[in-house]
């Protein structure tokens, strides 16, 4: 296995993975994050270069199966499978014409991590709380909040560029808030050159 550290190789890998979307999406998202500042401190490992058949994205220095998580993609011949398209998929995401009165688009703060941990299906413990706090600190997220700054719904992005935790408080459901939050998140991701998926 070979760790890719050269920026030219990483950009080339991103282009190769882009051609095999959507099957390469988790690894593609991690490579895009690495090539755009590496906020999650990730590295990419391939079985060989440039003719690779397997790609692994993991936290720098971590072994597969570690606590933080990793993404992989395996192909018979990675270069041979890159036939699906010439670029990242783009979706038409019309922005809502307007939000309800008193609802604003905002960021979450570290003060909201307990709410996130309580509402996440995999949450409720110290490990999930630490993971969610890390996501808030390092990766894009968005929330719709009331006039007092209380989150009504939110979406978080993980280290692989995927939407990982979206939630609307039960008392605010069926008002189109999540659709609006996802639309704003997709538009922001696309403006930064990222695909939006979950």
TrEMBL record:
MF-aspect GO terms: glycine N-acyltransferase activity
Glycine N-acyltransferase N-terminal domain residues: 1-63, 99-140
Glycine N-acyltransferase C-terminal domain residues: 148-197
EC identifiers of the protein: 2.3.1.-
EC class: transferase
Gene Ontology annotations for the cellular component aspect, listed alphabetically: mitochondrion
InterPro entries the UniProt entry points to: Acyl_CoA_acyltransferase (IPR016181), Glycine_N-acyltransferase (IPR010313), Glycine_N-acyltransferase_C (IPR013652), Glycine_N-acyltransferase_N (IPR015938)
Keywords attached to this entry: Acyltransferase, Transferase
Entries under SUPFAM superfamilies matching the protein: Acyl-CoA N-acyltransferases (Nat) (SSF55729)
Pfam entry (one): Gly_acyl_tr_N
Keyword Protein transport: no
Family affiliation: Belongs to the glycine N-acyltransferase family.
Protein's name in the database: Glycine N-acyltransferase-like protein
Organism: Indicator maculatus
Gene behind the chain: Glyatl3_1
